[in-house]
Design goal:
InterPro entries: SAM-dependent_MTases_sf, TylF_MeTrfase. This is Macrocin-O-methyltransferase (TylF). The termini are far apart. The protein is built from 10 helices and 12 strands. The protein has about 300 residues and is α/β, with parallel strands linked by helices. It has one domain: Vaccinia Virus protein VP39 (Rossmann fold, 3-Layer(aba) Sandwich). The structure holds S-adenosylmethionine.
């Protein structure tokens, strides 16, 4: 194939992927645009359209490791947290502040503080297990070096002041194992985007006990098997936090947000702390009915 043909094929593929993404938005953002989402905070349709547009714009303006669609999925959950549940949003790993700027916008709308943890000088020296991560869904191996993803705090704060709401942010500068033990505030949502299993362990060890029941823990590393498996590691959870492992929605492949070469996926997954399973639907796998299952009890019955 000549260079010209290759570039035409690449352009057509890009346009096709973009069209697929646009067509899937009503599904992916259905919960975000539901009238109840944000109603408790007085956030209506116009606010949501403006927020989505600002987030999309920020994703272009700031070099960012996550996407505005992933930020909107997190924003959706922030807008559904009951108003009376006090607590901060926490971001671990902000790089240049692209995800932080977007989270700060929704934090501002909901009048919640955003606590930002980062070394602001990049990754610590990875240990033997973190030097290489396997991403089976993407058929990739990711490698890390000390100082990768470094961005100085001044640059991050400038980006957030320009594109987000810096007034809701508190910055905790330094490696997590030094800054997190001092932090004691209740939290309603955690966003971990830390790259290393060891860093994820430090975040969960210190922040999981501060997360309210019903609160959300998002991770942006779900395709990394080394990190996804942490959420299922019974020995680690029992020894470190005296609790059973919570599991992870999207483990291995991520929430289906972006068209990829082998189906929809993303790097984003989440878990709810102590979900209220009494309101879940009960479904009998009896091999009968539509899709061979029967709904025995509807949610909220
Ligand atoms: C992948 S980047 C975050 C990307 C960012 N959330 C975005 O969407 O652009 C990972 C960040 O985690 C930080 N980090 C990882 N491990 C850390 C640790 N143990 N202590 C402090 N910062 C850490 C790095 O400095 C880096 O900024």
């Amino acid at each position: 194939m000549g260079d010209n043909t290759r570039s035409v094929v690449a352009s057509v593929a890009r346009i096709y992927r973009f069209a697929l993404l646009a067509a899937s938005l009503p599904v992916v953002l259905a919960e975000y645009f539901r009238p109840e989402t944000g109603a408790e905070y007085g956030v209506g349709l116009v606010d949501k359209v403006v927020l989505a547009a600002r987030m999309a714009r920020n994703n272009v303006k700031i070099q960012t490791g996550s996407t505005f669609l992933e930020h909107l999925v997190i924003a959706t959950k922030v807008l559904t947290i009951p108003h009376e549940d006090d607590g901060s949003l926490v971001e671990c790993g902000c790089y240049k502040g692209g995800s932080t700027a977007n989270l700060s916008l929704v934090a501002g709308l909901c009048n919640r503080p955003l606590e930002v943890f980062d070394s602001f000088e990049g990754m610590p020296e990875p240990n033997e297990n973190d030097r290489e991560h396997v991403l089976v869904k993407s058929e990739q191996i990711h490698t890390y070096d000390e100082d990768a993803w470094g961005a100085p705090i001044e640059e991050v704060q400038e980006n957030i002041a320009r594109y987000g709401d810096v007034s809701v942010c508190t910055f905790h500068e330094g490696y997590f194992d030094r800054t997190m033990p001092e932090f004691e505030q209740p939290c309603v949502l955690l966003f971990l985007d830390v790259g290393l299993r060891e860093s994820a362990e430090t975040c969960l060890e210190h922040l999981w006990p501060l997360l309210r029941s019903g609160g959300y823990c998002f991770t942006h590393d779900v395709k990394h098997m080394e990190i996804s498996t942490l959420f299922f590691d019974g020995d680690w959870w029992r020894e470190t936090l005296d609790t059973e492992p919570p599991g992870l929605v999207g483990a291995g492949s991520g929430l289906g947000l972006h068209p990829e070469h082998n189906g929809f996926g993303s790097l984003l997954g989440y878990i709810v702390k102590n979900p209220e399973s009494s309101v879940f639907e009960m479904v009998a796998e009896d091999g009968e009915g539509e899709n061979c299952v029967e709904v025995v009890r509807k949610g909220n019955d």
